[in-house]
C-alpha cells in the first residue's frame, strides 16, 4: 500500500466513483494572466504532504488564505474536518487554526461540532460541551495540515474545499445539525484498492 506523507493511501488522491468532476477539477476564470489555474488535485496533494501542525507550531502556519484539514492522530489517521481560511486581516490560516485550538463555539464551527458530538468513539468518556475538554482533545490527540492557496476569489477557495471534502470525507461537515453526526471515515480512503 503506497502511503502519502500524511499516512493516507494513494487512493485518497483519486476521485471517488461518481465524483462531481466540476468540484474535483475547475479552472480560474477571472485573471488568467496574473494567477495560474487553480487545481483541487494539486491543492490536495500539497495538503496531504504538508507538515503536521500542533498547537506549539502555530507560529509556522502561513498567514495567507488557504485550506486546512484536522486529523485525529492514529494509524491510519481519521479526517475530522476540512476547512478554508480567508485573509482574516492578514492573519489567514494561522488565525483560523488558533480559533480552532481556542475552541470557542462563537467563532469555531469545529467547536460546535464537537460540542454536539456524543456518538463518536473519541467523544466517549469526554464531555465536549466543556470547552477545556475540547481544547485538550484538539491539542493532545489531533493535528492540522494546512496550505496557502493563492486566489482572488473566495468562491474558488470554497470550490477547492468542496472537492477536498468530497475526496477525504471528513467526519464533521457543514453546519452543526445539517446532517447526521458523526459520519465514519470512508473505508475506501483508509485501505488500498
Topology:
Blueprint: H1 21-24, H2 40-49, E1 66-72, E2 78-85, H3 92-102, H4 109-116, H5 131-141, E3 142-148, H6 154-168, H7 187-190
Antiparallel strand pairs: 1-2, 1-3
Helix pairs in contact: 2-6
Evaluate the radius of gyration: 16 Å
Low-confidence stretches: 1-6, 19-34, 180-193
> What sort of overall outline do the alpha carbons produce when their principal axes are compared?
globular
* pLDDT averaged residue by residue: 79
Order of helices and strands: HHEEHHHEHH
How many structural domains can be distinguished in the coordinates?
A: 1
Strand content: 5-15%
Largest sheet: 3 strands, antiparallel
Q: In percent, how helical is the residue content?
A: 25-40%
Query: What separation lies between the terminal Cα atoms?
Result: 8 Å
Give a brief outline of the structure.
The chain is an alpha+beta fold and 193 residues long.
